[in-house]
Each structure stands twice: as structure tokens, then as C-alpha cells.
Amino acid sequence: MKKYMSILTAGCLYGLTLVSQNALASDSTQVKMGEKTVTLVGQLPELNQTAPGFKVVDDKFTPVNLSDFKGKTILISAVPSLDTGVCALQTKRFNSEVSHFPDDVVMLTISADLPFAQKRFCKVENVDKIKVLSDSVWRDFGEQYGLVIQDFGILARAIFIIDKQGKLKYQELVPNITQHPNYDAALEALKNIQAQ
């Protein structure tokens, strides 16, 4: 599995679109939710193209747009729900890593959790360095990035990195949402993309 992830990560760094092992020939992608195969609505955006815009909300239900971070390098950590173990660890990991990057790097965690639940989670877990945003109102992020799990309404687990010019330069769709993303590959890619 480790070797497989390394190959996928290397492919991702060289501009190949990373999809799950269960990608369909049609317009849908499948990932695993434990042992169950689930279908994602829409398609992953293309690498090296302008990243799709989206609108989400913060903990006060104030709209936040991708364009609000124009000119910055952006890492987006998409998670199914902050109240699950892997999602909590993923969010806390990036919260601890963001301070190792300059001010022109922004890290976002986006889930379909309600802002109230996100705010509670952040307070309890001392998550205060990254921006935690909700896709619960419009599902705009999930639809634009092909991450909404059909019939469940939550997001698949994924990492995206957008450069200062607004181009999508890195993505990892985790094949099973119960698994962690490749943190080291994402952070290394972020360093390289930010330095360009």
C-alpha cells in the first residue's frame, strides 16, 4: 500500500490527476467508506487549470469565497466530519503545520459539518491556526471539486493545493475515507509550490 501511495503521489507531483482505484469510466468516481463502495457526485477538477471557485461559510455563517485568498498559496484539507477520529487528526495535523509556512500560505479545512459543530470542535481541540469552513449551506465546494458522497451528503477525504496564480497544482483523493491522506507528500508539495 505504501508503495502504491508513493507512485500515486509521484504521479500527482508530475501533473497527473489522482483518482481512486475504483474510478469509473463515466463521469463518476468511487471511493470506499470502510468496506462499502460509494459514488462521488461530479468530477475532480483538472490539475494545472484554474481552481474552481466556491462559496462556504465560517463559524458565524459569514460567506467565504476562494477568491478571498487571491495571491496566496492555499492548501485545502477536505474531511467527511470533524467529529470522527481520522478527520480530527487530519485537521489537528495541518493546524500544527501551518506555523512552519510564511504568511502567504493559507490552510483551510472544509467539511459539511454545521458551523456550530465546527466551532465547538475547534474550541475543544485548540484548532486556531487554520481556517475551518463549512460546506453545509450550499454544498458548493463539494460539487465544484467532485467530493460530495452520493446519498450521504458528506465530503470525501482529499487534499488540494492551489498556487498564488490560482492554478490547481496538487490533489490527492484518498481511496478510502477511513484512511489518512499522505501528509508528508502534501506538505512537501506545498513547500515546492509556495517557493515558485
List keywords for this structure.
single chain; 196 residues; alpha+beta; Glutaredoxin; five-stranded mixed β-sheet; three-stranded antiparallel β-sheet; 5 helices; 28% helix; globular; disordered N terminus
Describe what is shown at a glance.
The protein has 196 residues and is an alpha+beta fold. 28% of the residues lie in helices and 24% in strands.
Write structural notes for this entry.
There is one protein chain. The strands form three sheets. A five-stranded mixed beta sheet has the order 7-6-5-9-10. A three-stranded antiparallel beta sheet has the order 1-2-8, with no helix packed on it. The chain is of the alpha+beta class. The longest helix has 13 residues, at 85-97. The protein is globular and about 40 Å long. It has one domain: Glutaredoxin (3-Layer(aba) Sandwich). A hairpin with a 5-residue loop joins strand 3 and strand 4. Mean pLDDT is 89; it is low at 1-26. The chain has five helices and ten strands; from the N terminus they run αβββββαβαβαβββα.
Question: Helices and strands in order, then pairings?
Answer:
Blueprint: H1 2-13, E1 29-33, E2 36-41, E3 55-57, E4 63-65, E5 73-78, H2 85-97, E6 105-111, H3 115-125, E7 131-134, H4 140-144, E8 148-149, E9 158-162, E10 168-173, H5 183-195
Parallel strand pairs: 5-6, 6-7
Antiparallel strand pairs: 1-2, 2-8, 3-4, 5-9, 9-10
